[in-house]
Amino acid sequence: MILIVTPTAGAEACARSIQQATSQPVQSAHSSQEASTFLRGGEYAAVVFDQLFLDAEPEAAEQLLDHLAGATPLYVNLAIHGMERVTRQVRAAMQRRKTQEQGARLSAQRMLRSELSETVTAMLLSCDMALSMRGLPEPAHEKLRTLHDLARELSARLGQPG
Questions:
Q1: Burial class of residue 13 (count of CB atoms within 10 Å of its CB; 0-12, 13-18, 19+)
Q2: How far apart are CA 79 and CA 81, in angstroms?
Q3: pLDDT at 103
Q4: Which long-range CB contacts under 8 A does 121-127 form with residues at least 24 apart?
Q5: Per-residue pLDDT for 161 more than 80?
């Protein structure tokens, strides 16, 4: 969802334009109180701040910035920029956000895979050593064999060489 914060009357037309271009629901707030209510009640991918609002209510704007959570802030001047330009800026910001999220997700996956791989390798080595022990009771040997097989399966899923 996207939020536009502006006191100007053209906010609704701009919201419709952005919604068509991004396929995201768009809400518009005409005051800092309304924007604050929206931010508390929903999760936004982007918040578009009109320069007119920022100039008229700098302290309120600063407080809103503290409550954006993960939303990407955009600063536009609706009095100067046309709807097409604002829409392009929002679309570009949404694409940057998507790219950053994908990069963060891939990085987290690689880190998790690396950490799990180390643990699985240690499990396999421990199982191999325990299975090579003489005099191991058969039920314990079977349990260790099962654990070893599960660790190999997990290793294969992590893309480790067997």
A1: exposed
A2: 6
A3: 94
A4: 121/155, 121/160, 123/147, 123/151, 124/148, 124/151, 124/152, 124/155, 127/151
A5: no
58-73 core/surface letters (b: 16 or more CB in 10 A; e: else): eebbeebeeeeeebbe
Q: Give residue-wise pLDDT tens across range 85-97.
A: 889 999 999 899 8
Supply the pTM of this predicted model.
0.68
**Is residue 162 over pLDDT 60?**
no
**Residue 116's CB: how many other CB atoms inside 10 A?**
15
3 state SS for the chain:
CEEEECCCCCHHHHHHHHHHHHCCCEEEECCHHHHHHHHHHCCCCEEEEEHHHHHHCHHHHHHHHHCCCCCEEEEECCCCCCHHHHHHHHHHHHHHHHHHHHHHHHHHHHHHHHHHHHHHHHHHHHHHHHHCCCCCCHHHHHHHHHHHHHHHHHHHHCCCCC
